[in-house]
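no rush on this but wanted to send it before i forget. what follows is a protein written twice so to speak, once as letters and once as structure tokens for the fold. mainly i need to know what kind of three dimensional shape the backbone takes. thanks a lot i owe you, the record is right below.
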Amino acid sequence: MSFEYIEITDPLYVENKEQTGEENYIMVRAKQYKDVPIKIPNWVPQAHCFTTEFKRHEKELLEAEVYPDDVWVLSYPKSGTTWIQEMAWLICNDLNFEAARAKKISARFPFLEIGLQSAALHFSFKDVKDMPRPRFIKSHLPVSMLPKRYWEVKPKTIHIRRNPKSVAVSYFYHSQGIHYRGSMDTFLRSFVREHQFYSPYHAHVIEYHELRDCDNILHVSFEEMKRYLPSVVRKVCQFFGKSYSKAELELLYQHVSFKSMRDNPAVNFENPKGPTKGEPFMRKGEADGWKKELTPEQIHMLDEWTKERVPNPEHRKLFE
């Protein structure tokens, strides 16, 4: 078996799992990780939070094919993933705005391991496998769980990160719109205990930034995109060897503006059952929106969590 499965015994999770809708969560640790080119001395992967569906698909995950002309976007959830996906797809496809609007991004840029979340979504690996090349692939997997071939092939990849307080707030509303039935405070306390899907958060980000000889990965942040969008666009264009005129780039900036993305049904996912409290997939798109959403006590809790999990001052800069 390539993974170790660990029951969550944390009293907070056990007490609230049925009420919050998280009763099938489990911690999963990779046992085969020698191919990951990481610089952290004596590194051993942490266990990450998934559902019990993971056990059914671990072979499909590990043996998923990876091609040299693939384009991957990797992130922890709610870090600006859809935003960078749309930008990357357009830059790689000659700014074909008509094609981008005509087809949902989930079809143009499918989510590799969504089948690990629910039995109803088990076709995700096949969907990616059957895509015409060059393929565009989204994933929230940590470095220790990427398909074996990823490290051999090293396809062009963008990794995006975001301030943990912004992630926490956005992740709560996103989860609430799908299945979560608890309060924000309960969610945040679970989040800092690393018992939300794909957690631990800090380890995910640090490990991607500690990879050795991975020039195939371009690192960007949500905050950088909010403040210096043209600069990020230039970096992404250079990364993929693309060049566009000033007028063409102005159209791209307009297309990937928050208002345009929020109003674009091709990228602004809608839950068919409707979100619990009417929150859209793209809510506010603010870099510091957490300041209006969190109490002083919650901010302190999240800040102390980051200090505890990230003792290295250089690593801590990743979470500012």
Summary: The mean pLDDT is 91.
